[in-house]
Amino acid sequence: MDHSTQGSRQANSEEAVVDAIRRMIVESRFDEDGRITESSLSRKLGASRTPVRMALKLLHAEGILIKLEGRGYRARLFSEEAHVHATEVRGVLEGLAAQRLARNGLSSLNRERLDKSVEATGAIITRGIIDNEAIEAFAVANLIFHRTIMQGSDNPFIEDCLRRLKVMPDSGIGEVLASSRVNWSLNRIIVSHSQHLIIKKALEAGDGVRAFNMMREHSSTPAEYHELF
After folding, report:
1. Domain ranges of the chain
2. Which of 155, 169, 176, 215 could hold 98 in an S-S bridge, CB 3.0 to 4.6 Å?
3. Domain 3-75 in CATH 1.10.10.10
4. CATH number of 80-228
5. 0.70 cut: is pTM over it?
6. pLDDT tens-digit series, residues 68-85
7. pLDDT tens per residue across span 11-33
């Protein structure tokens, strides 16, 4: 077997394990005082112990896992203050991505994806009904919008840093999905859609300053919008 191919498969395997553990932490699938071990995770994930071992070391280095005496780790608990700090950082990172994309210029593919995203959220607002179909459509459209900007920034370090923040509870889409107050949910989508349109216009105009400021506002203040509505 070609060694470069083998190395690539190993790296992909470790990345998949890291992402799986992140999801488990986000979903609170570990007991508060539970011991996370290499052997138990290997069984749960159906993965060999080598990528699990490397994933645990990586997440420990990132501060997401805490090393226990003897063997094993436990998931780090994040305070409300830590959540606020993480949200601020996410806003700056996404703002930087939008700024870079504005300065680099939109490719035809990026433009097409952004167009489809805002068209989809606009259709939800026109329909005026928040049900499971609308919620799923909004989640997909919003994900496309943000991922397009992240990937279009042409800076992999931005995505790497944002990936580390995935262990924090999401205060954007998550609040919309979990809300039982239909009017608030629709209003929140209207605000999100309006901000997407402004960000898209700044990207198309190559206005990096406005793209940064609007994207930062959009990504870092969802909790304030929650209180507003």
Report:
1. 3-75, 80-228
2. 215
3. yes
4. 1.20.120.530
5. no
6. 888 888 887 766 777 777
7. 447 778 888 888 787 777 877 67
